[in-house]
Specification:
29% of the residues lie in helices and 26% in strands. The protein is built from one helix and nine strands. A hairpin with a 2-residue loop joins strand 7 and strand 8. It is elongated, with a radius of gyration of 23 Å.
């Protein structure tokens, strides 16, 4: 009888551990999805088009410094929406993750009265 109780206890503990592990894995997956959906000051992170604003982004000209090396690619700056105001995120030189990729700049796309952010990405 005691052996059966120990075995049942071990099975229950194992099942609990598997359940907690699965929940933790699910939590991490959701966190990653949330992270990729948030607007980020780093264009290499893929923010999803979840940012919707009812004001057009202001015009902006950007100074582009000389590249640090021939292998660097210019990643232009962009406007982001934070605390009900536009905030400029400066462009920068970045090394592509692979040789044959190019940077597709992020952009704000107007849909009716709303502006929707489409993130920049390597392609």
């Amino acid at each position: 009888m005691r052996r059966r109780t120990v075995v049942c206890g071990m099975l229950l503990a194992s099942a609990t551990l598997v359940f907690v592990s699965a929940c933790s894995h699910e939590e991490m997956r959701v966190e990653r999805e949330t992270t990729t959906q948030m607007a980020s000051p780093t264009p290499a992170v893929r923010p999803a088009p979840a940012v919707i604003v009812r004001q057009s982004p202001p015009p902006r000209e950007e100074f582009q410094a000389p590249p640090p090396s021939p292998s660097h690619t210019w990643v232009p700056g962009y406007w982001t929406w934070e605390s009900n105001t536009w905030v400029w995120v400066s462009g920068r030189w970045e090394r592509p993750p692979e040789r044959a990729v190019t940077w597709v700049p992020g952009q704000w796309v107007q849909r009716g009265a709303e502006w929707i952010w489409r993130a920049g990405h390597w392609q």
